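User: For a teaching handout, I'd like to show students what a predicted protein-ligand complex looks like in C-alpha cell form. I'll give you the sequence and the SMILES for flavin-adenine dinucleotide. Please answer with just the structure.
Assistant: Understood, here is the input followed by the structure.
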Amino acid sequence: MVMKKSVVIAGGGIGGLAAAGALAARGLDVTVVERAGRIDSGGSGLVLYPNGVRAADALGGRVGARIRAAGHVTADDEVRILMDASGTVLAEEPIGAAGRELGAPQIPVLRRSLHRALLDEALAAGAAVRLATTVEDYTAHEDHVAVHLDDGSTLVCEALVGADGINSAVRRRMLDDGPPQYRGYTSVRGRTTGSVLGQRGHVVNGRGIQLFIAPVGGDTLYWTAKITSPPGVWPAMGPQAAQRALTEALEGWYEPVVALVRDADTADIVVTDIHDRDPAPRWTDGRVALLGDAAHPMVPALGQGANMALEDAAVLAEALASAVSTGSASASSAVTVPAALEAYARERMERAAAVVLQSRRQGSVDQGAGEAAESRRNARMKSAGRKDSDLAAVVGWRPRAQPHERTQPPRPTAGSAVQTKESAAIMRTPHVVLVSGSLRTGSTSDRVAEWCARLCAEQGATVRVFTGSEIDFPAYRPGLGAVHEGAAQFLEELRRADGVVLVSPTYHATISGLLKNALDLVNDLDGPLPYLDGRAIGTVAVGAGAQGAVSTLTTLRTIGHALRGWPTPVGVAVAQVPPLPATDEPLSPEGERLAQMVSQVMWMSSARAAARPALVRAAA
Ligand SMILES: Cc1cc2nc3c(=O)[nH]c(=O)nc-3n(C[C@H](O)[C@H](O)[C@H](O)COP(=O)(O)OP(=O)(O)OC[C@H]3O[C@@H](n4cnc5c(N)ncnc54)[C@H](O)[C@@H]3O)c2cc1C
C-alpha cells in the first residue's frame, strides 16, 4: 500500500486538471489518476464564457494566460450570426461587447489545446499524473480515504476529488443514483479548416437540429450539431457514417454550412448522446468531494459544463488550501478537510443546480423540434437578438475575494458566542409550506401533503401544511391578502417560505380551482422579493388517470414559473398515499419519486435558508 498524503483526483479532464494545478500551486501534494492512456481529448472545441475565464484566472499561475494563448479571444466588436437554415440572418449577437461589459471575453478553444494548457500548468505546479489507471472505488475513513485502483493497488490520501465525469465511479459509491438521463437529442461535433464562413461564430437553426459554430484560431472553426433523435441511434453509426448522415440531414440548408460539415476531418468527428442528471442532494462524503460533470452533468445548451468545472476547481482550491494551511490532519485544526469540502459544496451546489436546470430548459427550446417550436424559437431569437435566455447571472460569476483580500471575521467574545450560534441556527432552518388543493377534509391530496411535510420535518425543516379547507378563500381580488385574515396568514407563511410544495387533485386534467384561487393571492406578495421568487416549488398531481395527471403537473409547473419559483424540482404524479418511509417496508415507485421530490425541495430550501442573511442584506 502506498502511503500518500493529501489529494488524489480521479479523472484528468478539464475539471480534474484545473483542480490539480490550483491545489498543487497552493502547496498540496496532488496525484491525478486518469483512466485514458494519454491526456488528449478529442471532441472538437468548446466556449469558455466570462465566468469560466474569470475562474481560470482565479486558479492562479499562468492558467489564464495559457488559455488566452490557446484559443480565440473574442474581439470587442465581434458578433455571432444567428440564422435560419436557409441562411437568413435572424440577429447578430454582440458577444464582444457583452464580454467587454463583463470585463472578461468569451474564448472558444479546441479541447485538445485547453487540456494541454491545464496539463502544462498542473505539471509545472508539481502535480503527478498517473495515466491508464482507473479509480474503481473508495473507502472513507475518519482520518483518510483509501482509493482503490484497477491495478489492485490502493492510494491513501487526506482527500479524494471525484472529477471522473458524467459516469463517475466516485459518485456511484457516494450517491448510487443510477445512470444519467437522456434528454432527447444527440450531438455530432467536428472541426473544419478553410470554411468560407470565415473566422466568425454562427448559430444555425433548423427543425430538430441546431448547429453551433465558433472560431478557435488559425483558419479553423469548431462546430456542434445537436440533433433530436431517439437514444443510441447516432452513436451506433460511428463517426464516418454520422458525418455522412448529418450532411444528408442538412440538405437544402445554407450551402457554406453544409460544406462545413461535409469537409470536416472525419478523424475528429465525435458523436455523443446528450444526458444530464437532476441536481444531487449532496456532493461530499467526509473527505471525498465531487467536481465538474461528476457533480453536475448538464446538457450543453448554454455551453456551461466546462465553465462550471473551472469555477468548481477555483472554489475547491481555496477551500482545501485553507484546511491544509491550518494543519488539517491534526485534531486541533481550525478547518478540517471534511469541513473545507463541505464549505466548497455549500458555495457551489445551488448555483450549479440552477445552471443544470436552466440548461435543460434552453436545450429543449434550442431543438425547435416540430414546425411550431421551430418558428417560436426563431422568432424569440430574432426579437431577443441573442441565442440564449438572459445569461447575465450565469456568465457574470466572479470568484470570491482571495484570503488576503478578505476582512477577518470578528472574533466572538465569550458572552456573545451562544447568541451567535443560536441565531445562526434560526436563520438556517429551512421553512417549507405545503398546500393541498382538495376541499374534502382528509382527502388523498391532504394526506399526500402531510406525508411530504413529515419527510421535510424529518430532514430538518419547519413546515406548515395548508389543507384544502384552510385555503377556501373568497374569489381573489387584488388587495384581498390585506383584508382577509386567513389569506393574510397564508401570504405570511409563503413570504417566510424557502420552499413550497403544491399538491393538486387531478380535476379534468387541470388543477383544482381552490388551489388556483389561493395561488392568485401570491399577486399580493410584495416586498424586496415579490411572488415566490427563487423558492423551490415541488409539484404533485394526485389522481389515477396518468394523462390527466401529466396535464395537471404541467399546469402546476407553469404556475410555478409564473410565480418565479426557481429552480424547479421534479414533479410527481401519485394515485395514493405511499406508506411512510420510516417503516421498514420498501417504498413503492411512487413513494420513491415523492421522496426524491421532497429531498430536492429540501436541499434547495436549505441552500436558500443558508443564504437568507445575505438576501436580507441585499434587499435592505
Ligand atoms: C456536445 C457538447 C458540447 C459542449 N460544449 C461545451 C461548451 O461550449 N462549454 C462548456 O463549458 N462545456 C461544454 N460541454 C461540457 C463539457 O465538455 C463538460 O462539462 C466538461 O468536459 C466536464 O469536465 P470534467 O473534467 O468534469 O469531465 P470530463 O471532461 O468528462 O473528464 C472526466 C475524465 O475522467 C476520466 N475518468 C472517467 N472515469 C474515470 C475513473 N473511474 N478513473 C479515472 N479516470 C476516469 C475520463 O477519462 C476523463 O478524462 C459540452 C459537452 C458536450 C457533450
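For the handout, you might add this sentence: Residues 326-333, 403-427, 614-620 have pLDDT under 50 and may be disordered.
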